[in-house]
Amino acid sequence: MKKRFAFLHSINFKIALSFILILIFTIEIIGAYFVRQLEEWNVSQFESNLVVPVYAMNRISENLNDNDKNTRKNINTTIQDFARNNSDITDIQVVDRNGVIVGTKDADRSAIIGRRTLKENIKQGISTNKKITQIYYDKNLGSSYESITPVSSPDNSTVVGAIYVKASMESVYQGISTIIVIFLTASLVAGLLGAIIAIFISRAITRPIGEMKQQAVRMAEGDYSGQVRVYSPDELGQLAMAVNDLSVKVEEATENSESERRRLDSVLTQMSDGVIATNRLGNITVINEMAREYLNKTEEEANGAQLVDILGIGDNTSFDELLENPEPMIIETTDFSDDEEDYDENDDNSLILNADFSLIQRNSGFISGMVCVLHDVTEQQKIDSERRQFVSNVSHELRTPLTSISSYIDALNNGAWKDQKLAPQFLNVTAEETDRMIRMIQDLLNLSRMDQGRSKLDKELVNFNEFFSYILDRFDMMLKKEKADAKEDDTKVVKNYRIKRIFTNKDLWVEIDTDKMTQVVDNIMNNAIKYSPDGGVITCRLLETNKHIIISVSDEGLGIPRKDIKKVFDRFYRVDKARSRKQGGTGLGLSISKEIVEQHKGRIWVNSAEGRGSTFYISLPFNPNETGGEWDEI
Ligand code: ADP
Known about the structure:
Helix content is 50%, strand content 19%. It is an alpha+beta fold. The protein has 4 domains: 1-50 and 169-270, no CATH class; 51-168, Beta-Lactamase (2-Layer Sandwich); 271-376, Beta-Lactamase; 457-634, Heat Shock Protein 90 (2-Layer Sandwich). Mean pLDDT is 87; it is low at 338-346. Adenosine-5'-diphosphate binds at residues 523, 527-528, 531, 555, 557-558, 560, 568, 573-576, 580, 585-591, 614.
């Protein structure tokens, strides 16, 4: 329905309709005026033809004044003469002052002569001495005209009668009707021609406008390929040229902004920082991949969401507060691993992010949004906290032996030195604590050297089978010696243990720094002994795989709780601090061992179940084709 009458709303139709209406109105107004004027002119012309000529008037005046019957007869002749010249006249009556008809136009109506006139307006004309005219419709004649002209006496002193003239006006109106018909026909033809011209003109005007409209629609749809035809250099032609120009410029601008957008997109995607942009209400409009990854959100979840909610700070800070005070802040994301089975205290997925905020401001100062840049500072924060922890650990570790040394020296100072039994004991403890401190400082120095990469390996090709056996032999010897010493000195208590070896028979030639690797194996063995129960078995294994040799040391001790397993290689980490210290441990042995093994491109790890002992493993790179070569034979 709407479509069928759509043309009614087109400019084409409106211009044509206006044009036709103006034409019709103009023709009608001119026509009406013309017909009116024509009618007036014809009527006045008609009237002037009916005026009784002066000579006839004078004659009638004289005849009426005479009052003589014979002379009155002349009246008939006079009016018949007058009527003969005018075919429109249908009736003429001459009436004397008493209203008696004294003459008529038609001879066959002479019977009415001598009768009183019945026409009231004749009497009125005589009494008022005023000419009366009237146009009216007569049943028989159609449009008719009547005039009553009073007749004065020759000396103009009295009214002696009146002349009544009646005429048919049909000829006048017929003439006018004919002209009206001609005029209407001409108007119709002019109207039709005008309509055709109007349609052509409006088509000529609206065609370029229509083409421009179509081009604008294509442009809105992103098609800039078309060009509008320029029909003439008039205003519409100039508009068409402007549209073509605009089309080129819009295409260029769109291409520019498109390539800008692509560039921005690729910059945002490549960025190692997370970037989020919002509108002025704080709803996210742009979020790059990194930010989504940091916050663990999909694009659908993030787009349109509130910035403060996505950052998880919505409870404490509103977006308006952020706008007022866009200071950087540290945000901690929650741990996203929802797999309870896999939960591991050390395997924390939460991130620490530094969020920088800046306002998007227009030249007018109007704030149209905000940009938030997220930088992952988890590692940095971890290092910082480790550093702080390390300094606090070192201070604590050094303070403990120093406090104990200081209290023993105080006691000695206060007279204990005189006590033959206590003094050597006190000095002994002081010496032990000093030794432990020296060991710890030595360990710290070693670690620091390794951290700085200043500790170089002095490698040599060693048969690891022999090397490991040699160290274990030393431990066996040590135990033997301690046992022998204990036999002589009853006060000494020796912890008993047995070293069991499960070794491959093969020679395993590996390149190692023997001093440092000895330190590692010593440390593992010492720990195994330290944390083993009395009489426990320490099982040492040596085996090889394709590319590695693996040694393991298993004890039957307390084991290590699951949560501490990864941490035992951390500096100063001890499962039971008091116990470790009592046994002279520094808490640095395993971390030094780890550094050394990693310097050898190897790996160190531990398997343990609380209460069921621990097994420490070391794997080192190994080439099965490597042999001691000619040196073996010597
Ligand atoms: P420490 O000088 O305290 O022995 P380490 O770095 O050698 O320092 O060891 C770190 C911690 O690991 C120890 O304090 C102890 O709690 C634990 N540990 C090491 N070896 C064993 C083991 N064989 N059995 C049980 N716990 C052990």
